[in-house]
Amino acid sequence: MKIVAIANQKGGVGKTTTAVNLGVALAEKNLRILLIDLDPQANATSALGMQEVEGESIYESLIGGVPIITKILPTRLDNMFLIPADLDLAGAEVEIARMPDHLTRLAVTLSAFRSDETFDLVLLDCPPSLGILMTNALAAADEILTPIQCEYFALEGLVKIVRVVEQVRGSGANDRIQIAGIVMTMFDSRTNLSEQVVSEVRQHFGERVYKTVIPRTVRLSEAPSFGKSILEYDSSGVGAMAYRALAREFIRRHGSLAPVRA
Predict the structure, then answer these.
(1) Cα 31 to the chain's mean position, in Å?
(2) Which of 85, 41, 80, 82 is nearest to 60 (CA)?
(3) What is the DSSP track for 189-216?
(4) Which residue in 42, 66, 12, 29 sits closest to 246, CA to CA?
(5) What CATH number belongs to 2-253?
(6) Domain residues of the chain, as ranges?
(7) pLDDT per position as a tens digit, 42-53
(8) pTM to 2 decimals?
(9) Least confident range of 4-8, 66-70, 235-239, 257-261
(10) Beta carbons of 239 and 214 less than 8 angstroms apart
(11) Is 95 in contact with 63 (CB distance < 8 Å)?
């Protein structure tokens, strides 16, 4: 079982879109996926059509020791499970900061999944900030997947998250964490800028940059408003095809990632 934090402190880069649609695409491959929404805005939760759920976030598990397994909800999709988010998580930022083990609260909470075969992959949809919830996610994860928008300030944002990773490693909270993958999102083939940004990121980060590029499409933007992944909303469209391709590449990169059951 692997835990992957999908993180970028910059908002609007396709982070939640990637968390939801990559998760659904991997679930289609018969992998059992748990998506944990760590953003108080609960965008991943609503993108799966589960915004009506209240009081089921990971908040009580982080603060009060409520078993995390009680917070897992099935979705309407086979092999796809969710721990939703709500506004209580905004308060967790303050409460966790006061605790002596404030960097490792999430790691301890998720340790229950390390010893069993309930899930093949846990995806952490991080908030777009450098606060306690993101640093907890980085301390708990095996690796980071970072979506980057194909725009001018892409590398500037990436430099900041690299610094946060170094801080987490230096603190001793998680000395193995690294940015293992970078996904270029919102690619517009009509502009030279998108091509230039992708080229520059590949030049700096080499093989860590996924070959699959996620295009900018209206359908990808529309799907969350219907509470659906792009694979449900526009299954044969270019957005769905891109995320299925990303899932295949993700599996190839993680040779040990395979269904734990037939």
Answers:
(1) 16
(2) 85
(3) TT-HHHHHHHHHHHHHHGGGB-S--PBP
(4) 29
(5) 3.40.50.300
(6) 2-253
(7) 999 999 999 877
(8) 0.94
(9) 257-261
(10) yes
(11) yes
